[in-house]
Amino acid sequence: MNKSATSHKRLQGISLLLSLICVLLFQNDVAADSYVRCQGRLVSIGDTKAEVLNRCDHPDKRDQWEENHNSTISQIYDYKTERYIAPKRIIQPIQMERWTYIMGPNKFIRYLYFQNGELIKIETGERGRD
User: Fold this and answer.
1) What confidence category does residue 56 fall into, taking pLDDT thresholds of 50, 70 and 90?
2) Contact, 92 vs 69, CB < 8 A?
3) Which of 19, 99, 117, 123 could form a disulfide with 59 if both were Cys (CB 3.0 to 4.6 A apart)?
4) Are 62 and 49 in contact (CB under 8 A)?
């Protein structure tokens, strides 16, 4: 085998190793978004607004909106199982809320999404400022 082919195989191996390391590093970030720690207590997908308020206190910002549907049948995404729930008959609009928690300077901002009072999604935002 010539030097060029050996060099190419070595680069492929290094590239594969770096890709694997990146996947393993980012895998933990995705799993961490199924819960958030507030004042030393855990909040997780499926908790109610009352439970989150009890553990985290009031959010720094609260956005509310209604989601209307074109039909009475709607699929709702279940973030806990990462699948769509079987279609349900929806008679009235879904009440949605996004609570923003600024955890402190240099800590990541957390966005908590509620659907009809139940926590369905947790997102990590940018770092807070001083």
Assistant:
1) very high
2) no
3) 99
4) no
Residue type, 36: V
Task: Tell me the DSSP string of 54-97.
Answer: HHH-S-SEEEEEEE--SSSEE--EETTTTEEPPPEE--SPEEEE
Show the tokens assigned to 124: 């990590």
DSSP, residue by residue, 28-46 = HHHHHTTEEEETTEEEETT
Is the overall model pTM greater than 0.70, yes or no?
no
Give me 80's structure tokens: 């806990």
* DSSP assigned state of 106: T
- Using DSSP's 3-state secondary structure scheme, residue 129 falls into coil
Cα(11)–Cα(15) distance, integer angstroms = 6
Structure tokens at 50: 């009352």
If we measure between CA atoms, which residue out of 112, 115, 114 comes closest to residue 123? 112
Q: List the structure tokens of 62.
A: 């609260």
User: Comparing 37-51, 53-67, 72-86, which segment has the lowest mean pLDDT?
Assistant: 72-86
